[in-house]
Structure formats: C-alpha cells, structure tokens
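We close this part of the discussion by returning to an individual protein. The encoding preserves chain order, so positions in sequence and tokens coincide. The sequence in question and its structure tokens are set out directly beneath this paragraph:

===
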Amino acid sequence: MVRVTIIIPTLNEERSIGKVIDDVPVADFLQNGLETVVYVIDGNSTDNTRGIAVDKAAKIILKEQAGTGSASSAYVKSFDRVTRCVIGASSKEHLSQLREAFS
C-alpha cells in the first residue's frame, strides 16, 4: 500500500489545527489504496496546538526553533515515504487540492 505523509507546520494554531486534521480525507485515500499519516511539526506553540493534534491522532515533531518557516524544509527530507504533502495549518484550500490529486 502506498503511504501518503501529510505534514502540517504549526505555530499557535489551536483555532484551526483540529479542523484541518479532521478535513484530511483519510477514508477517501484509503479507498484508493493510500495509507495516510499526519505529522504536525510544531514550532514551539504556546497554546494548545500540540494537545489538539494529539487528540486527533496526529504524530508530533517538536522543532527546536520557534516558527513554521523552516519546519517544512528541515523535516520533509527526513520522511521515508513515497508521497509527501505539506499543507498549511490555517488553510482549507490545500485540502481540496489534496482530494483532487489523490482521487
């Protein structure tokens, strides 16, 4: 089975991270033979971003430096997955593109 890795860089995204993770079309991907893993790469959030992500079964990677800017480039290369997608923690636009790409 092909594995899709969803990477979400975050910094204080407690207002949106739960909805973004919920909107990842895991069931749709599975129907198309794609296993999905969601990673939140957190830039030292001071709110409940990580707690919400854990509650949504996302895997957490805590960045040493604050911010989201380097999260993607610093960690994306380390994922040993066939397909990797980086999406914003506060935008649903990426999720509709994901659905189209893997449907």
